[in-house]
Queue: 4 jobs
Job 1
Amino acid sequence: MAATGSTEKPDVLVFGPPKLTITKALGDGFVQHTFENQRDLGRIAPAMAERIRGIAVTELIRVDQAMLSKFPKLEIVSTFGVGYDHIDVGYARDHKIVVTHTPDVLTEETADAALGLLICTVREYVKADRYVRSGLWTNQPYPLTVGSMRDRTVGLVGMGRIGKAIARRLEAMKIPVVYHARRADPNVLHRHYPKLLDMAKAVDTLVVMTPGGSATSKLVNADVINALGPNGVIVNLSRGSVVDEEALIEALKSGSILAAGLDVYANEPVVPEALKALSNVVLLPHIASASVLTRGAMDQLVVENIKDWFAGKIPPTPVPETPVKGR
Ligand code: 8YV
């Protein structure tokens, strides 16, 4: 990693939808360059790219080898969000670039969203809201929901920080919880399934909260989805890539599962018309962490990581693949 301590202001690229909170907090200690879209990469002149030492980015920008290799002096990529499957961390590690993300500050908000989405999906609250607004209630009461939280076993796909926060909420609701993760966590008392399909056969509800990327691509496939049975419910707040979207649509259409609640999509913000046409799905626009409070804390952490790095300190939240041991 490059030495710090020079008096020259570091050049930082702020790449993604404009965010005053980030540009203001970075302040005039940096020479800031702002670009909004992936396609703007081509507009970054080589002379400017040469000077860039830090990048603040969101998950909407693909930070792959082609991008990273444009910046020979790059030292740090600070991404907004806990997920960093949009970043080639292997390339970053090999080129001594530190990658940081924003875990912890969004854990409880995202776990709240998971529970909200799960209950909304099972008990049809969005449909029921539409029922009231349409005036149908004056004709007859809303039909009883087929789904209930009372007879479910939830299988968590992923048992990281957010998975644990979801499990705590489900425990309080007296709902049995099991989980699938590559390795069992000795600190977790719930039953661990090394194989997702085995877990899917034993439960009726999946809450997907595992990192995206090639290792988990279409992990929740047609076999897993259909194993849940006709009372099956899938809630996904991780990445659209983790669930086979076409297989999910088929299962929802045919009734081989009951319903799904989605906050993420394979090609977001584009959502397949086939999903929008279904009445047994609740569709959210990737808002699990999206409160003013939590997004503010995430913005702050993006900035703190960059500021600390260029102040010669250890940034608070590097990803495990690019640890910073001492400076
Ligand atoms: C995003 C998320 O950061 O933390 C994550 O991994 O998916 C979200 O909180 C947010 O959607 C950024 O646009």
Note: The domain at 107-283 is CATH 3.40.50.720 (Rossmann fold).
Job 2
Amino acid sequence: MPLIQIKDLTKLYRMGESIVHALDGVDLEIEQGEFVAITGASGSGKSTIMHLLGCLDRPTAGDYLLNGRNVGDMSDRELAHIRNQDIGFVFQTFNLINRTTALENVGIPLFYARTTNSRAPARRALERVGLTQRSTHTPSELSGGERQRVAIARAIVNDPVLLLADEPTGNLDTRTGEQIMEIFSSLNEQGVTIILVTHEHDVAMRAKRVVQMRDGKIVLDKLTRDIHVDAGESPTARPADIPALQPASVPEAPPAPAESAPGNAEPLEATPTVKMKPRLAAGVNGAFGCGLAAPLLLLLGIVMLIVMQTRFHPSEFSPEKPPPLALAVLGIMLLCLLLSIIAGLIGFFWGRAVLKRIRTVPGSWIGKGRARTACICGLTTVLIPLALFGLNIVVWMTRTARG
Ligand code: ADP
Ligand code: MG
């Protein structure tokens, strides 16, 4: 039984007075394990058929059987389940969540599936696309090719039977596009059924079967190896029956500026130098604040001590009736000293943790100076009272020894 059986599939759109035949009675069968490229000029119906295959939309007429089950008979709930479990999607514009790491992006379908709390499947998926070293990076820290690899990892994290990709190389330069196609080929060798849309001839010829569309109809359906044979055994020759896939087929979205970043032409297994936007390391300002507060509090405590010694004579202190102002000053002094030690300790350890994070987590971090200042201020603030206390003890001991 074929994985996909489409019979007379039709999708109409009403555009004002006229009706657009986005799909005009398409028949198609795709077996498990195939690697199919759908090509055609812009507006020929490629995205429409992908949306229907991906259960993102319902046809106007016709049948779509996925694994023998008629998708038209399914409830929205069942369709959502199929989209999550059985189908992976890869888009031209990657569609990653910007502020979350590669690993978290890949784990999103797991979260929706509520099957596991473990990150192991997401790690495995990243490994399959050769991106283990980039798991803690956010999309803005990745090249275009790497972003698309993250998107592919997200698409395969639930081990889908079907992987759909709409112009996955459309926003990438040729070399990066080839690397992405290598990943698709290797996933296909591992048994994943892949259908991808492209208007690039070379990309289409990396698949095992080419389906060409025009005006909502399939006009050519051929194995790539037969196309090679027809073209005279030369795999690089452009076959006559795949017309030059028009440059007129405008890409759906303008290429993102980051795609021209120098990092995206890297060989797959290498660890390229990725140009990263500098970012403030988390916790820097907190540590810095504590580190600065500590000596200030200590200073305030010392001022209170001086006030005590100059303003209040010891003879004024009778234990029964101490002057309230002196008590207040004494209280503030002790509080300041205590708080300065606490702030100093927090500043020191927090600053150290931030420095460690900056050293060990890949990324271009800002805040090293502030974290260092927090450490130094915190430590000195804690050490100064200790040193003074120690000095007092030494003085007292020498005096008693002499006396
Ligand atoms: P392709 O992906 O090959 O460029 P599409 O499948 O996006 O083509 O579109 C096929 C045809 O259907 C085009 O003529 C397009 O204008 C039309 N079409 C697609 N989506 C809609 C829509 N939501 N509303 C109206 N017309 C649409
Ligand atoms: Mg399209």
Note: The domain at 4-86+160-241 is CATH 3.40.50.300 (Rossmann fold).
Job 3
Amino acid sequence: MPVVPADEPAPVPSAAPPSGAHPLRVAVVGAGPAGIYAADALTRQDAVPVAVDLIDRLPTPFGLVRHGIAPDHPKMRAIRDTLHRSLEHPLVRFVGNVDVGSDITLAELRRHVDAVVYTYGASLDRRLGIEGEHLPGSLAATDLVAWYTGHPDADRARVEAALAGVRSVVVVGVGNVALDVARVLSRTPEELEPTDMPQHVLDVLAAAPVEEVTVLGRRGPAQATFTTQELRELDGLADATVLVDPAELELDPGSEERAATDRNVSRNLAVLRGWADHTATGGRVRLRLRFFRRPVRLLGTDRVAGVEVERTAVDGDGRAMGTGELEVLPADLVVRSVGYRGLPLPGLPVDERSGTVPNEAGRVLRDGEVSPGEYAAGWIKRGPSGVVGHNKHDARETIASLLADAADGVLRTAGPVDDLVDTLVARGVEPVLLDDWRAIDAAETALGASRGRARTTLHERETLLAAVRAAAARS
Ligand code: NAP
């Protein structure tokens, strides 16, 4: 017998199998790529009639495509056009500006629908757990990325204070997010001007006199998780020189073996070796890639002044081993880019260590047992890995589980229940539906056009909602 904790609703009483008149109502929580791919997979089959509510706490869809992919990657961000087509499906209803947990509890949501798919991602940062990490001038990559993509919850004051007058930056971690951060901080104002970054972001970045950006790996170049395309891009920056110490590219036998069997690693090494003869001439920014250094503490009294690092070596299993040799890297901004973890949604189990919702092929587990009618997809299911496209396969697996459960009679429609949007409106919530999002989209395009750009992101929740209200008043 599945175990459902006392604070959770009992599974919806079985009524009838889904039909055209009474489709299976599915709420998808999180309208990022995983949620949109889940909605898409639900509507691309005709075995089980469905009606999908795609809920997001922001008034805007697209999750990390809007607030994660770097604004200077317009081709990657263009995937939103494809995602938008799934939002327009007649069986999908976008319901933005709704926070599951505060506007409606999970238990209440579950009473409105026959199944819930959690796709709300992994929005929290991981910490280094070292002295000085809380000093002003120490930021998580999530803080900086939220700010430069115009996320309404970004802590503007803290990020802008950290960027004021900054010359030397250390980015901890050698994944793709670290490269995004290093690249954005190294770009010239002219390179950033065509992006959809909010104007204040462009202004603050233009005023920051960055001269030195160091990307720091605690292991060697063969263990870095960045991908070659993203790495290679660093060499094309208008006013920055990429620098690599050739001594740090020498590999131990284990790393040699890794390079021989992993194409991403061998390609990364080839790119890095191509830069080993670069010298620090020309260019405003020296962008250094350093390896075999792990941060021990952040130095400074009232704000960050440097990072003390310990030299490392990798053992036969590729683990970093401290050598006891210490070094200080000057820095007035330290950005930790060491991964993401999932936020616990009130009423939903999240594994503390992995930051994911326990699941089996997308079926949520509570106390080790499958919880009927609850599913997960995307980063909250598998952890923060992979590019946007990986979520498609991942969401399909979850929806296959859901549809199999529907076919087995585990999921049945509970008969007439109140409409979710009516319930939310009655309690004073202002859900943002597809046409409302279109009004926001139009307002951003118009703002961009007024500055000769394709789009400028509206970064305040109130401004986003004002665009919705203004469109409603006009119609
Ligand atoms: P990631 O690839 O997992 O990188 C995390 C980095 O942090 C690793 O280098 C890791 O080193 C390091 N790290 C972890 N704990 C550390 C510690 N205590 N001290 C020092 N270093 C530490 O994660 P991510 O960069 O956040 O990216 C998340 C996902 O998004 C990835 O799948 C990425 O490819 C994807 N993404 C893709 C793009 C793109 O395609 N352009 C852009 C952004 C993000 P160890 O390996 O030693 O643990």
Note: The mean pLDDT is 94.
Job 4
Amino acid sequence: MTEDTRWGDVEGYLAKTVVDEDEVLVGIRTRTVQAGLRPIEVSATDGALLALWCRLVGARRVLEIGTLGGYSATWLARAVGVQGSVTTLEMDPRAAEVAQENWRLAGVGDRVELILGAAADTLNSLVSSGTDPYDLVFIDADKKSNPAYLEAALALTHPGSLIVIDNVVRGGRVLGDSDDPDVVGTRRVLEMLGSDPRLQATAVQTVSSKGWDGFAVAYVLG
Ligand code: SAH
Ligand code: DHB
Ligand code: MG
């Protein structure tokens, strides 16, 4: 049994024992695979952590960059409650279609808005339209653009918001080939988190069914 298999087994155990990953969420995973999308949604324990952070900051307005089949957005939508909303950005029309069906089946379709298009363009429009700030931003799309996404997140949040970035370790590739645009983007965004006086940040390594990875989380200071 490889380490990775055991990480997956423990992830399954924790998801069942501690985290309430119900059949609706499992169904979202299944339909994502059946639709031919890559099964790269967050783990159940990470989804629950996103939900917990929403509750800790009392999030009502959440922004997600990178939707896929709508798995993490469903955790977020449940956590913001009936008064809350999740805006999620996706460029793949097929993923958008699958996600919207998943939210309908999960009963959260009325609180999730998907904006189709390249996230950088959508973020520019959101910033220039002067939209109300978000309480939590979850960045989980193309890693090379993470520095731009963090800049936009800073423009779209308020003191007390949280900014979360997925996949900042990628099996240790964060320390690898510095020509890979995704590695460059990840390292740059981690440096930005570490040096911006507006943020208190950390990055945490994780192991799960998705192998060795990690996330960064930053609190927007007053
Ligand atoms: N947050 C999801 C997983 C997202 S996977 C979950 O945990 O359930 C990353 C997604 O980002 C993919 O669906 C991909 O199509 C999308 N994506 C990649 N580059 C993008 C871009 N430039 N603009 C918008 N979406 C992008
Ligand atoms: C990949 C992207 C993700 O957002 C993730 O959580 C895992 C893997 C990928 O592009 O390989
Ligand atoms: Mg991810």
Note: Residues 67 and 73 are 7 Å apart (CA to CA).
